[in-house]
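SUBJECT: A protein chain and its fold
Encoding: whole-number codes for local backbone shapes
Chain under study, with its fold:
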Amino acid sequence: MALAWSVLGRSEFTNLRAASSVSGRHVTPSGIVSQPYLCFDPDRHDYADTTLGLRIQAWKSLVFSVGVFKSLNDQGVRATGWSPVGSVEATF
């Protein structure tokens, strides 16, 4: 059995996406305006996440992995709360 905890971080490059590549003309009550598609934000984001996991060797090379994933900040498109993850691994 093994217990693992990690803190992950990543940062996007500045000005990687041009605002014109993710936006277009939309019809609104006040007329036609240029807005991002699907509320997409082309600005730079910094992500910070943490994971907590457990690996259990069930039999010879059969391993079960379970864990949870939690975002530490709210930049970009992020899930709220804890997200469960899991897998089954085996070698022959």
